[in-house]
Amino acid sequence: MLILYRRILFWLFVTSFFVVSSSLLFHAYGYRFSIERGIFIYTGSLSLKTNVETVDIRIDDTLIPQKKLGLLNNSIQVSGLAPGEHRIMVSAPGYKPWSKKIVIESGLTTEFWNVFLIQENYGQEAVPFTGGVIKMFPAPNGLFATVKKNGDRYSVEVLDIERNESEEVFATTEAIFSPDQETNIEWSPDSHKLIIPLLQNSLPLFTVVDIKTKEAFVLGGVTPSEAPIRSPRWDATSRDSLFFLQDTSLYRLDTRIWERQAILVTENILAYDLSRNKLYYLEAGNNQVYEIDGNGRKGTPRRITPLPAILKEGGTYSLIVYDDTRLSVIEEATGTLLVWNEEPSFDWRNLGTGIKSFQYSDDGKKLLFYSDYEIAVYFNQDWEAQPARAKDSIVQIARFASPIKNIQWAEDYEHVLLSLGKNIKMIELDHRDRRDLSDLIILENPPLELLARFGTDSLYVISTSSSDGGNSSVFSITLPQYTTLFGL
Predict the structure, then answer these.
(1) What is the CATH number of the domain that holds 51?
(2) Is the residue at 89 inside a domain?
(3) Which helix (H) or strand (E) holds 438?
(4) Mean pLDDT for the chain?
(5) Residue at 64 is within a domain
């Protein structure tokens, strides 16, 4: 009898061992037993990246133990999820929750690698010396050029936030600062000179200023032509040289000797741009784009668009180049935007009309473009991270009933910053379930300008206050970057 009991006990242990080990093996390979269905199912997993290092995750109202960004892809992994639709919510103290309906597939990982949690309250830090500022332009070295208006007087100051200093370098009562939102103060490459865009008697007037000596001269009288100068740009390969257009001629000028005449670079062009120490121009007549090495000082022009762009005769155009395979042309009067992308079509694509402006992402894979009411993104290349998006595709991001302003990329190029009335908002590109559109700040009055500076995690806002007689000033908020490897 004792031997029988021992045999029974032995086989019970053996059976238990195989049941437990099989269960553990099935569990390790992602299988879970479904009580409702009475079978093992092959589960999926979830991978998250957030701008907050430690977050709470709820899946179908069940709290997952607090998760911290891990070493694997600097992300959070949640495994063993049943295939099908789930509701996920990510939260952290002091932040607004982010939530979506997600679909888990057997044996696959569903990725959300651009989850940005917005703080419930952003502290506003006043920027000194910015009373009366209406525009603000960053320099490569961290300085800012601020434009101030006091009655009929316009002035430009150089602001050093780190040193808490500001100095006026230019002022005028005979002209106004250009109201064109796409016209900027141009800093020279080493931040020692400015090109200031003005209007005098409704005509463009550009002034070059040395910020140390405060010497200034009007950019004019340096060519045989009396036509208005347009599109001045600093030459990144030469400390004091700049380019500008006059009629359809492109000139280069050495600003160290103001009496010197400008040098003709090329003729018969509609627009030009500088990128990666190369000069690009759109030639009139054949409507094709050419490239010259050394910003036009050496080499012969090379045609980089075999097919001509279809342009309106007599139009004024701007050319924006990312590189010799990705570039765009916009007709200023109608806002018609044409984009050239060598693959897959080797042709120009018309992205629409009424477009106010556009911006390439830092990696050149996306082109953000927008009108007064709509925001969209064109993909220059395949985007393989989830949600995958195909090359040469357009994704409509948002459409609003009221005019939108200050549209610009956020740091990850998967979110867009904008202002809608008094609200400063951020919207994500990820369309799965819905796009998260959240308020960063709600102001007393609509902001005059937003200026994101990713290197310092700062968003600068030019705002007005009714209690201060409508005077403008600048404050900043901190928009932290995504936590990187090891939490740095």
Answers:
(1) 2.60.40.10
(2) yes
(3) strand 437-442
(4) 87
(5) yes
